[in-house]
Design a protein that fits this description.
Layout: H1 18-35, H2 43-54, H3 63-104, E1 109-111, E2 117-122, E3 134-137, E4 140-142, E5 148-151, H4 152-155, E6 159-162, H5 168-174, E7 182-186
């Protein structure tokens, strides 16, 4: 475990024995995990609840009141998460739209009815893959701010895929690219990972 933002205070509690240090460390871990992502919380009330459990005191609230409070808390957190998600999607979509509008100003860029945009960097002379074709490709994927999300180049190893087994934008682009081509492709969210996103790097609504 790695914790930051806390520092020992001179003259405060000191734990000399190993069992004391272990118990204190466990307390730090449990409390940190409990509070992670919970935002503002009544510290005094939280500590009182923990103390009553540890010291086996009679609870201030009844079981039904505790259940009701936790249900209300979960509902509020869910609503807050939905608001935050909607805000993230709107922000990413706005940023993506601006990027695509700017990209489209390049006279070499083609914008298809689906929203897919591409710019031919190198024209290939081979066959054009079909939906059920298997192809070997090199690629580098980025977000609109330039952050790299994946790259076969960095692994120095191309990937082999079936054309219709990838995200829609890839399928549409690959079925237009003669073998030997190199394109710069821009995918709106609908042709990429939509409002779900993917992994830790591709946020919902991302171009």
């Amino acid at each position: 475990f790695l914790f930051s933002g806390f520092s020992a205070m001179a003259g405060e509690k000191k734990f000399e024995t190993d069992p004391q240090k272990e118990a204190y460390s466990l307390g730090v871990v449990v409390a940190s995990q409990a509070l992670a992502g919970l935002g503002d919380m009544d510290r005094e009330a939280f500590i009182a609840g923990v103390t009553d459990v540890v010291e086996k005191n009679e609870f201030v609230l009844s079981d039904s009141q505790i259940t009701e409070s936790l249900t209300r808390f979960d509902q509020r957190r869910a609503e807050e998460a939905q608001v935050a998600l909607a805000s993230m999607i709107e922000s990413n979509r706005t940023e993506g739209e601006a990027f695509r509008k700017n990209f489209a100003e390049d006279p070499k860029v083609e914008t298809l009815a689906s929203g897919l945009q591409y710019k031919v960097l190198q024209s290939g002379e081979g066959d054009t893959p079909q939906n059920d074709s298997t192809v070997t490709i090199h690629y580098r994927g980025t977000l609109v701010d330039g952050r790299e999300i994946d790259s076969s180049y960095s692994r120095n190893e191309p990937v082999t895929i079936q054309v219709d087994q990838v995200i829609p934008g890839w399928t549409e682009a690959l079925t237009r690219m003669p073998v030997g081509s190199k394109w710069q492709v821009v995918l709106p969210p609908e042709l990429a990972y939509g409002d779900t996103g993917a992994g830790d790097f591709i946020e919902p609504g991302s171009t």
